[in-house]
Protein 1
Amino acid sequence: MVKIGIIGGSGLDDPKLLENYETTDVVTPYGHPSSSITQGKLSGVDVAILARHGKKHQIMPSNVNYRANIWALKEVGCTHIIATTAVGSLREDIAPGHLVFPDQFIDRTTKRAQTFYDTNKVCHIPMGEPFCQKLRTLLSQTADQQKIIAHRNATVITIEGPRFSTKAESHMFRSWNAHIINMSTVPEVVLAREAGLCYASIAMSTDYDCFMDTREPVTLAEVLRVMHENAEKVKSLLKELIPKIQHTDCSCKEAIKTSVIG
């Protein structure tokens, strides 16, 4: 049976997406998740929505309890996660308003717990292909059908934040062949793999990072404006996508079975 978890950053934790929804408070071995979980149906499919940064966006990226969030979605029965995230663009062709479905990440975080297995056991989870290919294919096909501009095969670099990059950092990330930048994909995607969940990201380009000499550096006001415009586009995409998610067999669910020592 399929149940879809939506991790709603950036205004996409809207319970009105769902029919007959109710909220559930979950306590995990890692403490409380960022928010209560809103559960209901979308086009007949069971869906659970969690607000990554809290209902009032009061939790900064480094302080998000990523382990509790993933654990809670698994606890309520989710089999797949679609995570929405605002990103800055590191490439001229990824314009504000475009969507991106990343297939790789570079981790530049320093403070975050990245595993459920931090006592008594060790987990060496494979991360060669961190995002679920089946979900990414469905996302791409659905975006094409809706004539939404979307980029595939992109690398997201996750920084600690909450500050934005310096110009020197932005140029460095570009030299590493990163395409977009955010503050939340890692360790979320890693923990989802440890939990045996299929995970894909809908990254919403809100701005160009500060590498362009011809543009003013990114501001919060600019990010919020484009984020609001993107939110409605992504809601439309989710409504079309979720009924298509039917796979229950996936390599995402198998990796953990051979990754734990102890």
Note: The first helix runs from residue 66 to 75.
Protein 2
Amino acid sequence: MKPGPSPGFFVRKLMRRWLVILLAVTACSDARQEPRFAPVVIGKLEDADIREASGIARSQRQENILWLINDNGAKEIVHAINPRGARRGEFDLKEAKNRDWEDLASFRLDDTPYLMVADIGDNDARRKSRSLYFVEEPAPKKKDKASLAWRIEFEYPDGPRDAESAAVDIENLRALVLSKRDIPPRLYEIPLRPGDDGTITATRLGTIRSLPKPSRQDVEFAPKTRDWHWQPVGMDISQDNRAAVILTYRAVYYYQREPGQDWYDAFNTRPIRVSIGRFPNAEAVAFGDDGRNVVVTGENKHSPLLLIDFNEVAEE
């Protein structure tokens, strides 16, 4: 596998060039709290066409490139930026349909770099099936077109549901999808290369109980306050398949997987929690380099880019 951007680029160089803004780190009873991992602002999304960034993934083909997608209602465009948020290109995935694109993942299969676009949003839980689109990652150009490598149509075994978090577990050749509105959220798996071209049924792995559970009052008042802070809205797995992150509207949860451990079991261990404060509409998260630096952004025009460095965790 080709290495991604170096930690030096994402941390030392950017932290020297940009004003460091520390965000308060709040306590959480079900996660280890590590104040030294406070996020820093490293840039903002300069491209006005990226107005609802719902998914982000680092390039597996070229250093210092991040790919982003917009939420539903946007065109079928995948955007490229550098780690400071400057535009680096885009491509049109014409064969796909953006009904509700909610997450983006990158991986290498047979030494070929791919992107997975997860059309998994379903606010009202009415859609019988959902789509995963796979495309061989192109080099970033000003404007380009790309063809689908393959597509997966899937349905849930327990009925339609809304989800905004998807990742690729390349070691086990599967995609993982985490539901949003279930309490606790449910984790599903879909084979990465199913033999059947028709709609397949995802496998429910179980519930994830390591994320914070909302109080009855939280749930009751959320429609009025517009604060669903406990809901998972993004997920990523590191290139070495040893670490993963889940993003909620309020924090990033970092997990480490033991050798031979299944991701379902790893996600039910005690994570490290880093608050992102009241970051407006935070919905996109991705590993930025070797699986220790994490980038977060949100669904606003010119949204900031946050960086969290977990290198010290990896050395423990």
Note: The chain has one domain: 7-314.
Protein 3
Amino acid sequence: MTDFLPASRTIRLTPRPALVLTTASLLGLAMFCWPLFAHPQPTAAAHTADAPFVFMATLPVLILVVLAELSRGGIDAKALALLGVLSAVNAGLRPLGAGTGGIELVFFLLVLAGRVFGPGFGFVLGSTSLFTSALLTAGVGPWLPFQMLASSLIGLGAGLLPRARGKAEIALLVAYGVFAAYFFGLLMSLWSWPFLAGDSAQLGFVAGAPLVENLHRFAVYTVLTSTLGWDTGRAITNAVAIVFLGPAILAVLRRAARRAAFQL
């Protein structure tokens, strides 16, 4: 029965860190949605200036959560070591698919780890995994903080999933893995849409246009450029990996949690 215990809390979110985490997540989502409400400059270079602001929203949250819980004894050296190991594994998995047809292996492990170790750990792991993999693959650019934040939200959500057991839990994680694939693609398309779509009459962002009109343009753009290819491939990869590898990996992660005394 211990394999079905609730998520471990390697980073226990007391009210203050939880409030900071929630606030940063909402501000981050607002930054993804800025094209729908703002009047950006028409060049891609202009958006590069936004990236540091996302770093300012993401990285302090990671530091605050870790330091606050360290000071309260909520996270110890074993938890930090586990975070480092999983970040390294995720970073090593990402280049294997090289993004070919949306085949990305980084997200299924993030979902499983967030499920086992809780939302705080999932949030931190999402950012550290993408940051580490970007260093390994020379993928550092203005898109990186957006990728980090989107991945952190996926890890956070995995830790908040309801309780389930056996096949029901795997089905729940598969459904969430599929959702996470499209969610990540949607957010990443949203931040780059005004610049990659250009002046296209059907797809392009129109500053100052009604919200419904821009939403329609974005929906057509993301379906044609992301959903039908990259996102669907990512969703299939997540589903297959969770079905075939999920039970074994969940058992390993939960055994590690018990031996490290992470369970509450």
Note: Confidence is low (pLDDT under 50) at residues 1-6.
